[in-house]
Amino acid sequence: MPSNKSVSDAPIVQFTNCRILRDHQLQREDLWVREGKILNPEKLFFDEKGSADVQLDCKDSIIAPGFIDVQINGGFGVDFSLATDDFKSGIDLVSQKILSHGVTSFCPTLVTSPSSVYHQVLPQISVRNGGTHGAGILGVHLEGPFISKEKKGAHPEHCLRTFEAGAFQDLLATYGSLDCVQIVTLAPEMRRSSEVIRELTKRGICVSLGHSVANLSQAEEAVQHGATFITHLFNAMLPFHHRDPGIVGLLTSDRIPAGRRVFYGMISDGIHTNPAALRIAHRAHPKGLVLVTDAIAGMGLAPGRHTLGQQVVEIDGLNTYIAGTKTLSGSVATMDTCVRHFQEAIGCSVETALEAASLHPAQLLGIEHKKGTLNYDSDADFLMLNDSLYVQATYIAGEEVWRQDVSGM
Amino acid sequence: MLMQVIGFKFVLSYKFLTAIMRLVILEDYDQASEWAAKYICNRIIQFKPSQGRYFTLGLPTGSTPLGCYKKLIEYHKNGDLSFKYVKTFNMDEYVGLPRNHPESYHSYMWNNFFKHIDIDPNNAHILDGNAPDLQAECDAFEKKIEEAGGIDLFVGGIGPDGHIAFNEPGSSLSSRTRLKTLAMDTILANAKYFDGDLSKVPTMALTVGVGTVMDAREVRTYLVLVACVFSRLVGVDTGIESKETFVLQVMILITGAHKAFALYKAIEEGVNHMWTVSAFQQHPRTIFVCDEDATLELRVKTVKYFKGEH
């Protein structure tokens, strides 16, 4: 068929025989891609009188937007909080390996570390698009060191800091640079946190509450100053109490500024959160749930000892503890495992599970106009999955960057 | 030999010069849709369209033809029917509605038909209700039909007020493609597609005229064309214009009890500009395809007669 397109000569690919996630539903529609973006075929037909150059039969796969992981500390032996000589190749390795888990964009996360680590590591990370080389980097997530001692979890106590002396300037001095920073987790009960939150929000950085003993009013105040995320809900915060729900109470708070939504990260590896608690959170505030892996260096490797910044952790199956303790420290579950486990534990629809790992993180970061959906003109970062939500192929900018080996290896 | 010079289309039409009106009654909507789709499919296949020799179809919108479109898509997906050498002309389009509005006829045709088949986008013609000069758009549309050599099969529906396309009650039976104001009945019937909000329903549309569809290939016209071709061959200007916006065959789909009264007016009463579909009583080759419910207002005698023939 002659394809004379007036807008561009770039090849048009039509993915057929598939079910695509669009408008919160799986629809039996074809997916059209041109120049790395999702194309509107009706516009192509009537305005350009164009048609597809290539048609690919997806054999009834589900096509969903690529997963976005906003909390991942490392993997495959790489620890983002360790300033090694081959740091760059480490981050490249992780970004390439997570393609097979369905992650097309991520925020490399640094746990509480000495200031020198931030100064050495941060300049080596740059925001970049994904491709065959690996998943795209949206920016860094700095989890700590401005967190509570009582809720430090696996973070090293000697590196915790406050900013009560110089507020934002202290924070900037600690990190060195905020150029590629996308998210900062801090404890809002710390003195002068409001100023810091306002300043970070002004710079377009997402502020997340976590590793904190804040009560609900302190948390609500933080939200009013600009905080929009909760780091791994339930973990490293005060437990829900019926007279002071703490940070968990943000899920149903009526003091959230109009037009704003509070998102919350959940590690659904089956260990960090009891399924009943997962269901309570989801039922209370389904649109805010963001699936994260909180994966550590041991993810993708055999069980044993690995590092997490300044700490040593021990991995046994899916359990990861600070060596010699029962303190959870990150997880080794992959993103697609989390999505499957989430769907099973909640008993929700496939669409809901997929959106928790794609649409919601995109909305959190304010990038849903180009990531996290299959809407026209969005970046063509998507996955082909089977009905059990196992990733069969990963695409970034319309190009296949990973495919399940058919031999089953 | 003269036949060969003029071309196969004329030979085909010579075979169909006998005038025939058919009323085909099927039991229900699904069967009527399937009958109509099979008829279209067979006409296209028998025509054997190819490069430079396209089959032209006139197409409707609305809820009635949805079943027919689904069946045609099925035949295409089975590999039995290709639209590669088919040209289509839709009857009408709203004025002032953005082309990508979910209720525009462009959206309807894309979602219900074009996106599922292999038609060349250059061959799918729909009036542009947002053209800067609407009458020029209508004239250009008629010209496109003419250039395509006319319409081999015009498929239409009928409004509850008996209108064909948007030729509302009172439209001239000689009309051509033009801008029309919609009747209140039509606006009310369409409100359900616009959230029940009457203020959102378009009030004007571009539509092919009754005259456009009524242009038929008949013996007289055939002779005129022979004369034209001959005169071109000989190089003499006989002053005879060949009118080629002809419609070879018309098929009107009418299903459901709410269309029964309109069908009665269309075929049991006289030709009347208040019920514009009645004009087809004078088209030499018309088929009315309906389900039992649509015949509820017809005389038992009429139904029995056509069922006997069918």
UniProtKB/TrEMBL annotation, chain A:
GO biological process: N-acetylglucosamine catabolic process; N-acetylneuraminate catabolic process; negative regulation of UDP-N-acetylglucosamine biosynthetic process
Residue positions binding substrate: 154, 235-236, 243, 272, 328-330
Domain of life: Eukaryota
Transmembrane segments: none
Cofactor binding annotation: Binds 1 divalent metal cation per subunit.
InterPro entries cross-referenced by the UniProt entry: Amidohydro-rel, GlcNAc_6-P_deAcase, Metal-dep_hydrolase_composite, Metal_Hydrolase
Top-tier EC class: hydrolase
Cofactor: a divalent metal cation
Enzyme Commission number: 3.5.1.25
Matching CDD domains: NagA
UniProt cross-references to SUPFAM superfamilies, sorted A to Z: Composite domain of metallo-dependent hydrolases, Metallo-dependent hydrolases
Binding residues for Zn(2+): 143, 211, 232
NCBIfam families reported for this sequence: nagA (TIGR00221)
PANTHER family: N-ACETYLGLUCOSAMINE-6-PHOSPHATE DEACETYLASE
Name of this chain's protein: N-acetylglucosamine-6-phosphate deacetylase
TrEMBL record, chain B:
InterPro entries tied to this protein: Glc/Gal-6P_isomerase (IPR006148), Glucosamine6P_isomerase (IPR004547), Glucosamine6P_isomerase_CS (IPR018321), NagB/RpiA_transferase-like (IPR037171)
Positions of the Glucosamine/galactosamine-6-phosphate isomerase domain: 29-165
Lineage of source species: Eukaryota, Metazoa, Chordata, Craniata, Vertebrata
Enzyme superclass (EC): hydrolase
Known EC number: 3.5.99.6
Protein name from the UniProt record: Glucosamine-6-phosphate isomerase
Keyword annotations: Carbohydrate metabolism, Coiled coil, Cytoplasm, Hydrolase
A Pfam entry, by short name: Glucosamine_iso
SUPFAM superfamilies for the chain: NagB/RpiA/CoA transferase-like
Similarity remark: Belongs to the glucosamine/galactosamine-6-phosphate isomerase family.
One cellular component (GO) term of this entry: cytoplasm
Primary location group: cytoplasm
Assembly, per entry: Homohexamer.
Organism: Ficedula albicollis
Subcellular location: Cytoplasm
Any one GO biological process: glucosamine catabolic process
Cell membrane recorded as keyword: no
Molecular function terms, GO-annotated: glucosamine-6-phosphate deaminase activity; identical protein binding
Catalysed transformations (reactions): alpha-D-glucosamine 6-phosphate + H2O = beta-D-fructose 6-phosphate + NH4(+)
